[in-house]
Write a structure and sequence with these properties.
single chain, alpha/beta, TIM Barrel, seven-stranded parallel sheet, 10 helices
Length: 287
Amino acid sequence: MTGRVHEHRLTVDGRSVRLLEGPAGWGECSPLPGYPCDPQAAWRAAWEAATVGWPSPVRSDVAVNALVAGPTFEPAALASFPAVKVKVGGARDVELVAAVRDAIGPSVALRVDANGAWDLDTARDQIARLARYDLELVEQPVPSIDELARLRRRVAVPVAADECVRTPADAQRLRDLDAADALVLKVQPVGGVRAALELAERAGVPAIVSSMHETSVGVAAGLALAAALPELRYACGLATVASRVSDVTLDRLVPVGGRLWARPVQPDRGLLARYAAPVVSAQDASS
Protein backbone atom coordinates (compact mmCIF):
# COMPACT_ATOMS: atom_id res chain seq x y z
CA MET A 1 0.00 0.00 0.00
CA THR A 2 1.39 3.44 -0.97
CA GLY A 3 -0.89 6.08 0.47
CA ARG A 4 -4.29 5.27 -0.94
CA VAL A 5 -2.95 3.37 -3.94
CA HIS A 6 -2.66 -0.42 -3.94
CA GLU A 7 -0.64 -2.32 -6.54
CA HIS A 8 -1.74 -5.70 -7.87
CA ARG A 9 0.99 -7.66 -9.66
CA LEU A 10 -0.49 -10.17 -12.06
CA THR A 11 0.45 -12.57 -14.81
CA VAL A 12 -2.32 -12.61 -17.41
CA ASP A 13 -1.93 -14.83 -20.48
CA GLY A 14 1.80 -14.99 -19.75
CA ARG A 15 2.17 -11.21 -19.69
CA SER A 16 3.21 -9.16 -16.69
CA VAL A 17 0.42 -6.77 -15.67
CA ARG A 18 0.51 -4.27 -12.81
CA LEU A 19 -2.84 -2.78 -11.83
CA LEU A 20 -3.06 0.24 -9.57
CA GLU A 21 -6.17 0.65 -7.43
CA GLY A 22 -6.61 4.19 -6.17
CA PRO A 23 -9.08 6.88 -5.19
CA ALA A 24 -9.93 7.73 -8.83
CA GLY A 25 -10.23 4.15 -10.06
CA TRP A 26 -7.95 1.60 -11.70
CA GLY A 27 -4.90 1.99 -13.92
CA GLU A 28 -2.80 -0.51 -15.88
CA CYS A 29 0.94 -0.75 -16.48
CA SER A 30 1.69 -3.59 -18.88
CA PRO A 31 4.38 -2.83 -21.48
CA LEU A 32 4.06 -5.30 -24.33
CA PRO A 33 7.25 -7.33 -24.90
CA GLY A 34 8.88 -6.30 -28.17
CA TYR A 35 6.84 -3.11 -28.54
CA PRO A 36 8.50 0.29 -27.91
CA CYS A 37 7.06 1.51 -24.63
CA ASP A 38 9.03 3.13 -21.81
CA PRO A 39 8.01 1.31 -18.59
CA GLN A 40 8.14 4.61 -16.69
CA ALA A 41 5.67 6.16 -19.13
CA ALA A 42 3.36 3.18 -18.70
CA TRP A 43 3.61 3.58 -14.92
CA ARG A 44 2.71 7.28 -15.17
CA ALA A 45 -0.35 6.37 -17.22
CA ALA A 46 -1.48 3.87 -14.60
CA TRP A 47 -0.84 6.35 -11.77
CA GLU A 48 -2.87 9.04 -13.53
CA ALA A 49 -5.83 6.69 -13.91
CA ALA A 50 -5.72 5.54 -10.31
CA THR A 51 -5.06 8.86 -8.57
CA VAL A 52 -6.34 11.69 -10.79
CA GLY A 53 -8.77 10.13 -13.20
CA TRP A 54 -9.41 11.31 -16.72
CA PRO A 55 -10.61 14.54 -18.35
CA SER A 56 -14.30 15.09 -18.94
CA PRO A 57 -15.57 13.35 -22.08
CA VAL A 58 -17.10 15.12 -25.05
CA ARG A 59 -18.68 11.89 -26.39
CA SER A 60 -20.06 8.76 -24.76
CA ASP A 61 -19.20 6.16 -27.39
CA VAL A 62 -16.47 5.57 -29.94
CA ALA A 63 -16.40 3.82 -33.31
CA VAL A 64 -13.76 1.08 -33.42
CA ASN A 65 -12.04 -0.89 -36.14
CA ALA A 66 -11.63 -4.63 -36.53
CA LEU A 67 -8.11 -6.05 -36.82
CA VAL A 68 -6.74 -8.64 -39.23
CA ALA A 69 -3.32 -9.66 -37.96
CA GLY A 70 -2.63 -12.80 -39.97
CA PRO A 71 -3.30 -14.60 -43.24
CA THR A 72 -6.55 -16.15 -42.04
CA PHE A 73 -9.62 -14.28 -40.87
CA GLU A 74 -13.37 -14.73 -40.50
CA PRO A 75 -15.25 -12.39 -42.87
CA ALA A 76 -18.33 -12.55 -40.65
CA ALA A 77 -16.33 -11.18 -37.72
CA LEU A 78 -15.63 -7.98 -39.69
CA ALA A 79 -19.21 -7.33 -40.77
CA SER A 80 -20.32 -4.98 -37.97
CA PHE A 81 -17.28 -2.68 -37.97
CA PRO A 82 -17.03 0.67 -39.77
CA ALA A 83 -13.32 0.09 -40.48
CA VAL A 84 -10.82 -2.76 -40.70
CA LYS A 85 -7.06 -2.60 -40.13
CA VAL A 86 -4.71 -5.15 -41.69
CA LYS A 87 -1.23 -5.78 -40.37
CA VAL A 88 1.24 -5.80 -43.28
CA GLY A 89 4.96 -6.17 -43.81
CA GLY A 90 5.07 -9.71 -45.18
CA ALA A 91 5.52 -11.38 -48.54
CA ARG A 92 1.80 -11.75 -49.31
CA ASP A 93 0.48 -8.33 -48.29
CA VAL A 94 -1.27 -7.63 -51.57
CA GLU A 95 -3.14 -10.94 -51.52
CA LEU A 96 -4.24 -10.42 -47.92
CA VAL A 97 -5.43 -6.84 -48.42
CA ALA A 98 -7.25 -7.87 -51.61
CA ALA A 99 -9.00 -10.68 -49.73
CA VAL A 100 -10.06 -8.38 -46.90
CA ARG A 101 -11.39 -5.74 -49.29
CA ASP A 102 -13.34 -8.41 -51.13
CA ALA A 103 -14.80 -9.64 -47.82
CA ILE A 104 -15.87 -6.25 -46.45
CA GLY A 105 -17.03 -4.63 -49.66
CA PRO A 106 -16.55 -1.03 -50.78
CA SER A 107 -18.36 0.79 -47.97
CA VAL A 108 -16.08 -0.18 -45.05
CA ALA A 109 -12.89 1.83 -44.49
CA LEU A 110 -9.70 -0.20 -44.93
CA ARG A 111 -6.31 0.75 -43.49
CA VAL A 112 -3.00 -1.07 -43.20
CA ASP A 113 -0.29 -0.95 -40.53
CA ALA A 114 3.35 -1.77 -41.30
CA ASN A 115 4.74 -0.91 -37.82
CA GLY A 116 7.73 0.78 -39.47
CA ALA A 117 8.79 -2.39 -41.30
CA TRP A 118 9.52 -0.78 -44.69
CA ASP A 119 12.32 1.42 -45.93
CA LEU A 120 11.39 4.46 -48.00
CA ASP A 121 11.53 2.82 -51.44
CA THR A 122 9.76 -0.35 -50.31
CA ALA A 123 7.03 1.72 -48.67
CA ARG A 124 6.49 3.76 -51.83
CA ASP A 125 6.26 0.61 -53.98
CA GLN A 126 4.04 -1.34 -51.60
CA ILE A 127 1.64 1.54 -51.07
CA ALA A 128 1.35 1.93 -54.84
CA ARG A 129 0.42 -1.75 -55.11
CA LEU A 130 -2.09 -1.55 -52.28
CA ALA A 131 -3.68 1.77 -53.27
CA ARG A 132 -6.05 0.04 -55.71
CA TYR A 133 -7.92 -1.38 -52.70
CA ASP A 134 -9.06 2.08 -51.64
CA LEU A 135 -6.98 2.49 -48.49
CA GLU A 136 -8.12 4.96 -45.87
CA LEU A 137 -4.52 5.37 -44.65
CA VAL A 138 -1.25 3.56 -43.94
CA GLU A 139 -0.01 3.50 -40.34
CA GLN A 140 3.72 3.91 -39.66
CA PRO A 141 4.95 2.63 -43.04
CA VAL A 142 8.54 3.75 -42.30
CA PRO A 143 10.37 4.06 -38.97
CA SER A 144 11.12 7.77 -38.53
CA ILE A 145 9.40 11.14 -38.72
CA ASP A 146 11.87 12.35 -41.35
CA GLU A 147 11.15 9.32 -43.53
CA LEU A 148 7.42 9.82 -43.09
CA ALA A 149 7.75 13.39 -44.31
CA ARG A 150 9.63 12.28 -47.42
CA LEU A 151 7.26 9.39 -48.11
CA ARG A 152 4.14 11.52 -47.72
CA ARG A 153 5.24 13.60 -50.69
CA ARG A 154 5.71 10.49 -52.84
CA VAL A 155 2.41 8.66 -52.29
CA ALA A 156 -1.27 9.47 -52.73
CA VAL A 157 -2.53 7.45 -49.75
CA PRO A 158 -2.67 9.30 -46.39
CA VAL A 159 -0.05 8.20 -43.84
CA ALA A 160 -0.27 8.08 -40.05
CA ALA A 161 2.50 8.24 -37.46
CA ASP A 162 2.53 5.91 -34.48
CA GLU A 163 5.70 4.55 -32.85
CA CYS A 164 7.85 7.50 -33.94
CA VAL A 165 5.87 9.97 -31.79
CA ARG A 166 6.26 9.58 -28.04
CA THR A 167 7.09 13.07 -26.72
CA PRO A 168 5.89 16.66 -27.24
CA ALA A 169 9.10 17.31 -29.19
CA ASP A 170 8.26 14.42 -31.53
CA ALA A 171 4.74 15.76 -32.06
CA GLN A 172 6.06 19.25 -32.76
CA ARG A 173 8.55 17.90 -35.30
CA LEU A 174 5.77 15.93 -36.98
CA ARG A 175 3.87 19.19 -37.35
CA ASP A 176 6.87 21.25 -38.46
CA LEU A 177 7.72 18.75 -41.21
CA ASP A 178 4.06 18.24 -42.21
CA ALA A 179 4.99 14.56 -42.00
CA ALA A 180 1.64 12.82 -41.49
CA ASP A 181 -2.09 13.04 -42.08
CA ALA A 182 -2.97 11.47 -38.71
CA LEU A 183 -1.41 10.43 -35.41
CA VAL A 184 -2.00 7.09 -33.68
CA LEU A 185 -1.92 7.40 -29.89
CA LYS A 186 -1.62 4.70 -27.24
CA VAL A 187 -2.01 5.80 -23.63
CA GLN A 188 0.73 3.75 -21.97
CA PRO A 189 3.67 4.61 -24.26
CA VAL A 190 3.05 8.37 -24.00
CA GLY A 191 2.48 8.47 -20.24
CA GLY A 192 -1.26 8.94 -19.80
CA VAL A 193 -4.45 10.40 -21.22
CA ARG A 194 -3.50 14.04 -20.60
CA ALA A 195 -0.06 13.52 -22.15
CA ALA A 196 -1.73 12.01 -25.21
CA LEU A 197 -4.11 14.96 -25.51
CA GLU A 198 -1.10 17.28 -25.48
CA LEU A 199 0.58 15.29 -28.26
CA ALA A 200 -2.58 15.44 -30.37
CA GLU A 201 -2.78 19.20 -29.95
CA ARG A 202 0.89 19.72 -30.79
CA ALA A 203 0.81 17.44 -33.82
CA GLY A 204 -2.11 19.34 -35.33
CA VAL A 205 -3.54 16.33 -37.18
CA PRO A 206 -6.48 14.04 -36.40
CA ALA A 207 -5.78 11.43 -33.72
CA ILE A 208 -6.58 7.72 -33.82
CA VAL A 209 -6.56 6.03 -30.42
CA SER A 210 -5.26 2.48 -30.27
CA SER A 211 -4.46 -0.12 -27.61
CA MET A 212 -1.50 -2.31 -26.67
CA HIS A 213 -3.81 -5.33 -26.26
CA GLU A 214 -4.24 -4.57 -22.58
CA THR A 215 -6.88 -5.93 -20.24
CA SER A 216 -10.17 -4.04 -20.07
CA VAL A 217 -8.58 -1.73 -17.47
CA GLY A 218 -5.98 -0.50 -19.95
CA VAL A 219 -8.45 -0.27 -22.82
CA ALA A 220 -10.70 1.88 -20.60
CA ALA A 221 -7.91 4.48 -20.54
CA GLY A 222 -7.78 4.44 -24.34
CA LEU A 223 -11.53 4.93 -24.43
CA ALA A 224 -11.23 7.84 -21.99
CA LEU A 225 -8.73 9.44 -24.37
CA ALA A 226 -10.94 8.87 -27.42
CA ALA A 227 -13.92 10.26 -25.53
CA ALA A 228 -12.01 13.42 -24.54
CA LEU A 229 -10.48 14.32 -27.91
CA PRO A 230 -12.04 17.47 -29.41
CA GLU A 231 -12.31 15.72 -32.78
CA LEU A 232 -12.45 12.02 -33.59
CA ARG A 233 -12.52 11.53 -37.34
CA TYR A 234 -11.36 7.91 -37.53
CA ALA A 235 -12.47 4.64 -35.96
CA CYS A 236 -10.13 3.67 -33.12
CA GLY A 237 -8.10 0.52 -32.57
CA LEU A 238 -9.66 -0.36 -29.23
CA ALA A 239 -11.62 -3.52 -30.08
CA THR A 240 -8.84 -5.76 -28.79
CA VAL A 241 -10.24 -7.22 -25.57
CA ALA A 242 -12.34 -9.79 -27.45
CA SER A 243 -9.15 -11.36 -28.83
CA ARG A 244 -7.73 -11.93 -25.35
CA VAL A 245 -8.01 -15.33 -23.70
CA SER A 246 -8.20 -13.84 -20.20
CA ASP A 247 -9.26 -10.57 -18.59
CA VAL A 248 -9.43 -9.12 -15.08
CA THR A 249 -13.13 -8.22 -15.14
CA LEU A 250 -16.37 -10.07 -15.73
CA ASP A 251 -17.78 -7.06 -17.60
CA ARG A 252 -15.32 -6.88 -20.48
CA LEU A 253 -14.96 -3.91 -22.82
CA VAL A 254 -16.09 -5.51 -26.07
CA PRO A 255 -17.74 -3.64 -28.95
CA VAL A 256 -21.38 -3.80 -29.92
CA GLY A 257 -22.23 -2.85 -33.48
CA GLY A 258 -18.68 -1.59 -34.07
CA ARG A 259 -18.77 0.81 -31.09
CA LEU A 260 -17.49 0.95 -27.53
CA TRP A 261 -18.97 2.96 -24.68
CA ALA A 262 -16.54 4.79 -22.40
CA ARG A 263 -16.94 3.66 -18.79
CA PRO A 264 -14.89 2.71 -15.74
CA VAL A 265 -13.86 -0.93 -15.38
CA GLN A 266 -14.09 -2.75 -12.06
CA PRO A 267 -11.78 -5.78 -11.80
CA ASP A 268 -13.16 -8.93 -10.21
CA ARG A 269 -11.47 -9.87 -6.92
CA GLY A 270 -11.60 -13.55 -7.76
CA LEU A 271 -9.82 -12.97 -11.07
CA LEU A 272 -7.21 -10.79 -9.36
CA ALA A 273 -6.51 -13.66 -6.99
CA ARG A 274 -6.37 -16.17 -9.86
CA TYR A 275 -3.82 -14.16 -11.82
CA ALA A 276 -1.76 -12.90 -8.88
CA ALA A 277 1.94 -13.21 -9.68
CA PRO A 278 3.96 -15.36 -7.25
CA VAL A 279 5.69 -13.34 -4.55
CA VAL A 280 9.46 -13.75 -4.90
CA SER A 281 11.41 -13.47 -1.68
CA ALA A 282 14.82 -11.81 -1.49
CA GLN A 283 16.39 -15.23 -0.82
CA ASP A 284 14.71 -16.76 -3.90
CA ALA A 285 15.77 -13.82 -6.08
CA SER A 286 19.42 -14.18 -5.09
CA SER A 287 19.62 -17.95 -5.49
